[in-house]
Amino acid sequence: MTSLTTAQESVASIDADALIVGWAADGSVAAHPLLSDEAREAIAAGAAALDASSKAGKVTVLPGVGVAARRVVVVGIGDATTEDLRTAAGEASRAVGKKPAAVVVALPVESDEAAVAVAQGALLGAYAFTDYKSDEDAASDTAWTVAGASDAAIARAQILVAAAAGIRDLVNTPPLDLFPGSFAEIAQQLGAAAGVEVKVWEAQDLANEGFGGILGVGMGSSRLPRLVRVGYAPEGATQTVALVGKGITFDTGGISLKPSKSMETMKSDMTGAATVLHAVIAAARAELPVAVTAWLCLAENMPSATAQRPSDVIRIYGGKTVEVLNTDAEGRLVMADGLVKACEEDPDVVLDVATLTGAQGAALGTRTSGVMGTEAIRDEVVAAAGEADELMWPMPLPEHLRAGIDSKVADLQNMGDPQGGGMLTAGIFLREFVGDTPWGHLDIARPAYNEGKPWAENVAGATGHSLRTLFRFLENRAQA
Which DSSP string do the residues of 124-148 spell out, in sequence order? Predict the structure, then answer.
């Protein structure tokens, strides 16, 4: 099993498959208290001959020289910010050789924040999803050592890395094996291991209690929907945060069928639910003094003889009716149920996380999420994202778009102005279901799943984007 530890002895003498060191802007190996000047000079000579770059993440590989490691990976550290260090560690982690048994990272870690960033970059940059690979292609277990890191930094990094990797594992799992029922079982297993309370609403429970959004979206699948509540409530907590996650385990678009190419990544449409689940597990493992509840809104959106149709009217939990104009605008329907239920418990704040709209990617690209909601909460989330080195941007909820979701036959319709603003209209739709509760909405549609080449700590496939932001938000709330 991959492990993460610290070391406080000279790294030059540690037997390892690879040693990762930084390359500074002055054309030298970045200073590290556990890396001798002699070793730095020996490495620098080889790196300079190969025109090593100080640009964050730029990698130069050398044979082991002046150290016990068999390979030296020299990586640019830019200005050595936490973001630069995470990027450097992530890029370097993919240059340590095939199936290394042991890797030592000797990048500058002058603070616990820097050490956590380095550990995150290294382990998440080397992440591989191999559950469906044959034995010879499966990833090996690697012992990672972050030289000079404190025990506290290692403990925090272990929690955050495990949460991000857990999200990636869920999102990368094929929908044949990850569906509402199996997802709910995984939540129960993780909850039991972390000592948090888990409650599951089966399909009949959803029908009995009036969760028309989740039921409506899931009625086309033979694999019935679920609602899952995961609650962490430490003694003495003075803040309560509710997290609501979109959990469409596969999205065909329903009767409003997507083009086949657009379905290829739709196993990732449950990223929001995976993220809020692991945010609660991480909060429990870190023993944060804040109460956190995750609501997983789980359904599979399939076309069939029992699927909901365009022009159907469904009743959301709490009573509001919605005319379904497009069955591929399904995420907001399941989220509406979850938001009303979450707000029923009167939390101090509710955040929802969803791969909600293609318009998010059109507006902000593949790496930046949009944040909407109550202005103060929106700004608090964006501030937490900045502290956590995740790209998020505050977006408005223009009042003129509200009229676009008025329906002639129901309280609301699930599509708005066809001229544009789809991300904002979806946010305005969700706002209808939070009442007076302080609320933030994170649309992570494109950043959640990397369809391109690896970059920084992000490999191809699921990224775990927004986990760091949520965790920092919870830490800040715990200190409020």
Answer: HHT----TTS-GGGSPPP-EEEEET
Contact (CB, 8 A) for 42 and 65: yes
Tokens representing 3 are: 């492990």
**Helices 151-172 & 271-285 angle (0-180, nearest 10):** 160
Mean pLDDT of the chain: 97
pLDDT in tens, 436-461: 999 999 999 999 999 999 999 999 99
* 57-91: pLDDT as tens digits: 999 999 998 899 999 999 999 999 999 999 999 99
Task: Find how far residue 444's CA is from the centre of its chain.
Answer: 9
The Cα–Cα gap between 98 and 101 comes to: 9
pLDDT of residue 140: 74
Helix (H, G, I), strand (E, B) or coil at 103: strand
Residue 453 known to be catalytic: no
Q: Is 330 annotated as a binding residue?
A: yes
d(Cα 397, Cα 392) in Å, to the nearest integer? 16
- The pTM (predicted TM-score) of the whole model is 0.98
pLDDT tens digits for range 205-214: 999 999 999 9
Q: In Å, how far from its chain's centre is CA 133?
A: 24
Instruction: Give the CA count within 13 Å in the CB-facing half-sphere of 258.
Output: 17
Residue 200: C-alpha distances to residues 6, 203, 206, 272, 447 (Å): 40, 10, 10, 17, 29
Catalytic residue among 258, 315, 367, 402: 258
**Is 79 annotated in some ligand binding site?**
no
In the structure encoding, which two tokens stand for residue 88, read together?
Answer: 């450097």
Confidence label for 135 from pLDDT (cuts 50, 70 and 90): confident
User: What's the confidence (pLDDT) of residue 165?
Assistant: 98
CA distance 388 to 50: 34
Active-site residue, 98 included: no
Amino acid found at 39: A
Query: Residue-wise over 27-50: b if at least 16 C-beta within 10 A, else e?
Result: ebbbebebbbeebbebbbebbeee
Is 246 flagged in the annotation as binding?
Answer: yes
User: CA angle 355-403-409, nearest 5°?
Assistant: 90
Task: Name the residue among 230, 264, 267 with its Cα closest to residue 249.
Answer: 267
In angstroms, how far is CA 150 from the centroid of its own chain? 25
Do residues 122 and 90 lie in contact, with contact meaning Cβ atoms separated by under 8 Å?
Answer: yes
Is residue 248 pLDDT above 70, yes or no?
Answer: yes
Secondary structure letter of residue 221 according to DSSP: S
Catalytic residue among 58, 71, 332, 472: 332
Please give the Cα distance from 151 to 157 (Å, whole number): 10
Q: Is 269 annotated as a binding residue?
A: yes
- DSSP, collapsed to helix, strand or coil, labels residue 102 as strand
